[in-house]
Design a protein that fits this description.
The chain is mainly alpha-helical. The protein has one domain. Helices cover about 70% and strands about 5% of the residues. The protein has a two-stranded antiparallel sheet. A hairpin with a 2-residue loop joins β1 and β2.
Length: about 290
Amino acid sequence: MNVNQIILGIVTGSYYSIVALGIVLIYKVSGIVNFAFGNMGMITVYIALQLLSLKLSPVGAFLAALPAAALLGCIVERFTMRPLKKVSHGSMLIVTLSIMMILEGLAVQIWGADYKGFPELISGKPFLFRIFGGLVLLRRQDILALSILAGISLIIFLFLRTTKIGLAIRATSEDEEASMLMGVDTAKISSMTWMIATALSTTAAILGAPKTYVSPSMMIHYQIEGFTAAVLGGFESMAGAIMGGLLLGVIENLVSIYLGNEFKPTISLLIIVIVLMIKPEGLFGKKRGVRV
């Protein structure tokens, strides 16, 4: 088995994991599968690109784009999701699809449909490692992606378990009505989770931009893989989202070796169907009651 491909699969999976984390976070608190998730990150990448044109460094543009992402998440939650909270989840899903198309159309109108380059946050000579007798070549950006995933995972874990806001998010995700009776401002919690999730989308988009280039459709692939990772790991599990993304990345790379690159898009859809048929709660999820 090619060790190099497995490691590279884990690197690719780290991007999927970041996307899956944001998707699962919104779903756990709001009960919404957000199909606009990727395009919300895409819009803020264009903002970062504008900041680069003002001679800001790639890292500076990335850091400046995160507050813009949080603001976008807050606006979408406050003025679209919250007023429609009492309608069916199917209707809200259609709303997120509408937002996805609106954001894509807005990007085309403002910045055009041409592909634009985006520099790596960390550039330089790649690192060469010898692991289990095999050689592994990793770009500095790849190591950064893995490090950011590890940092985000640790921060979210500590945040949800050691802070009042984190505990409120967990309580709201378990039982919103009971949380309201206990004095939790569930509207504010919902807004905060959308802000955090949109920042995660932006993080994945900017990390992936040097590979995908910046375009209105740049996040379609990552969003599909993020959904697949969430289904694979379990929509009710943050740890499952992380593990699902890493596992999906490895599976895709192995598929590309033994079956060819043309089968990689197909394998994601096949995984969704198989997991939903055999274990609908995902590999790491737990069975629970359905939201009404």
